[in-house]
Amino acid sequence: MSSTVENIIQGSVKERIDRWVARYPDDQKQSAVMAALRIVQETNGGHLTTELMDQIADYLEMPPIAVYEVATFYGNYEHEPVGKHKICLCNSISCMLRGNDEILAHMEKKLNIKPGEVTEDGRFSIKKVECLGACGGAPMMQIGKTYYENLTEASVDEILDGLE
């Protein structure tokens, strides 16, 4: 770990990770890696860096490559900065059949960004995700921890305009 990188695993971050570590046998603390990645990502404004993943590996006493493998396999970990409101647009077959392409095109035009980009003011980013598990409400998106279902262009405008 680089000595120029501030250790993020301290104080309340360390306490939160330790609560997850306590759920597993003493010799299995690496089982808390997904929770640790989520906690560190939240603390770092929504994305991970190699240095932060190295700190997690060091703290959980596991090879850095094992942390990178988890962080790059799952789509809920970000490796580039995201907007204050990360819009996760579901790309499942149900959403595709019910118009997510039109919803995406509308969001791209409204926000002037493509998936993977952040608006100039840093408020929004768009990410296409494989499935959010809400096929009955397709097309749908997730912003923060909230699911928005049965989207229309009008409802997208109302939702986005209502966010600070």
UniProtKB/TrEMBL annotation:
A Pfam family reported for this protein in Swiss-Prot or TrEMBL: 2Fe-2S_thioredx
Cited InterPro entries: NuoE-like, NuoE_dom, NuoE_N, Thioredoxin-like_sf
Cellular component annotations (GO), alphabetically ordered: catalytic complex; membrane protein complex; organelle envelope; organelle membrane
Binding site for [2Fe-2S] cluster: 90, 95, 131, 135
Cofactor binding note from Swiss-Prot or TrEMBL: Binds 1 [2Fe-2S] cluster.
Keywords tagged on the record: 2Fe-2S, Iron, Iron-sulfur, Metal-binding, NAD, Oxidoreductase, Translocase
Organism domain of life: Bacteria
GO biological process terms held by the UniProt record: inorganic cation transmembrane transport
CDD domains reported in the protein's UniProt record: TRX_Fd_NuoE
Coiled coil start-end: none
UniProt keyword annotation of Transferase present: no
Any GO MF annotation of the entry: inorganic cation transmembrane transporter activity
Names of required cofactors: [2Fe-2S] cluster
Keyword Protein transport appears in the UniProt entry: no
Catalytic activity: a quinone + NADH + 5 H(+)(in) = a quinol + NAD(+) + 4 H(+)(out)
Family that this chain belongs to: Belongs to the complex I 24 kDa subunit family.
Protein name per Swiss-Prot or TrEMBL: NADH-quinone oxidoreductase subunit E
